[in-house]
Amino acid sequence: MGDRTLRVGLIGLGGVCAAVHYPGFARIPGVEIAGLCEANAEQLARRQREWGIAAGFTDAQELLKQVKPDAVVISTPNVSHREQVLRALDAGCHVLCEKPLGMTVPETVEMYDAARASGRRHMTAFTYRFVPGLTYLRSLVRTGALGEIRHARIQRLHDWGESSLGWRQYKAMAGSGELGDMGTHRIDYAEDVLGPIRSVCGAMKQVVLRDRTRDGQACEPQDVEDWVAWIAEFASGVTGVFEMGKLAKGRGPDGGHDFCELNGSDASAVYQLHTPHEILLAPRGQPYAPRPVPEEFLKRPGSPRDPNEGDPIQTFRYDQAWEFVSAIREGRECEPSFYHGMRAQAVAEAIMESVRSRQWVNVPTVKDSDE
After folding, report:
1. Is residue 137 scored above 70 in pLDDT?
2. CATH number of the domain bearing residue 74
3. Which 3 state secondary structure label does DSSP give 368?
4. Would you say residue 109 lies in a domain?
5. Are residues 132 and 122 in the same domain?
6. What is the pLDDT confidence band of residue 88, given thresholds at 50, 70 and 90?
7. Would 370 be classed as within a structural domain?
8. What's the structural domain count of the chain?
9. C-alpha 354: how far from its chain's center?
């Protein structure tokens, strides 16, 4: 795109847009947030005032038609991702879409194929790819510093209370509960660090009804899981144990317990979300000790973000916008792309099938990446 301003439209203006997408794009030179779209007119008006953006729409098609953005970010409920993505690609936009990419594997295959055919950049919003500690852990694995990786354990435990979670608690809107919400992040970064997952054996449970709002009003009970766990066998021979839950008392809603431990033949290492600028490292025969993340892993190359700015548990997520913009400007594929969103959905559906059948399930090869 050269020096031309990149005009971005934001579709869906809820919490993730306000916390991640808007501040991420707003700080990148040469990027203009050209228009907003939100079905809730009151929320739309509030964001327009907060962010000083005149062009606002309750219909995404009108944003695409009137603003004609170069790129869009889609942060709407999961059930609408497919339609929004296909419309944006048809309008000639590059697309960054929240996870999970689609409701089913066939949906994600359709979206991936359409994105490839369009020649536009496509990205799935797996923000944990940008955690400094996790990026450093990935480097240690790839350089062989831990030796041969033997097993891994990955956990995300927090307490979101027992009241309504809105659209996220309904299968028709979200597809799944904790698996799609937090599990797909961990599927993606586990495969990024350790390679493809070959087979899974899972369990999940809906623990509470969530039939009341926070102010005590009755609402439709939830029909998705609060807790999910699975064992994974990676193609490399690594065994992984995963657990996600929204009802772990003592774990706050700001991240709670977020943990990845890798055990290798020469050393073990741990990433924890609440200390994103350091890891724990234990060479053979030694206890764990903190190790600072080297400077080159604290942010993505060229990112305008200051690693010392703000809350490091949140601000690493701004580098996602930088990766998307950089890929557009450089004419290369995004990391992670729609391929990775499709791949995560295939693993998630294998976990759900394992829960239904109460047996191990192989993860199907949906498509090979040519990127």
Report:
1. yes
2. 3.40.50.720
3. coil
4. yes
5. no
6. very high
7. no
8. 2
9. 23
The C-alpha atoms of residue 86 and residue 348 are separated, in whole angstroms, by: 22
Within this chain, do residues 57 and 70 fall inside the same structural domain, yes or no?
yes
pLDDT tens, residue by residue, 270-321: 999 999 999 999 999 999 999 999 999 999 999 999 999 999 999 999 999 9
Collapsing DSSP states into helix, strand and coil, what is residue 233? Answer: strand
- Helix, strand, or coil (residue 183): helix
Q: What percent of the chain has pLDDT over 90?
A: 95
- Cis peptide upstream of residue 196 (ω within 30 degrees of 0): no
For residue 154, the surrounding DSSP H or E stretch is strand 149-157
* Cβ–Cβ < 8 Å for 183, 228: yes
Tokens of 313: 């548990």
Angle at 103 between CA 73 and CA 19, to 5 degrees: 35
Residue 15 has pLDDT above 60, yes or no: yes
Cβ atoms of residues 246 and 226 within 8 Å: yes
pLDDT at residue number 366: 83
What is the C-alpha separation between 337 and 95, in angstroms, rounded?
10
Angle made by CA atoms 351, 356, 358, in degrees to the nearest 5: 85
Angstrom distances, CA of residue 343 to CA of 105, 107, 265, 353, 368: 8, 12, 28, 16, 10
Q: Rg for the chain (alpha carbons), in Å?
A: 20
Q: Which domain-ending residue is among 86, 109, 127? A: 127
CA geometry: angle 279, 285, 291, nearest 5 deg: 20
Query: C-alpha angle 355/360/363, rounded to 5°?
Result: 95
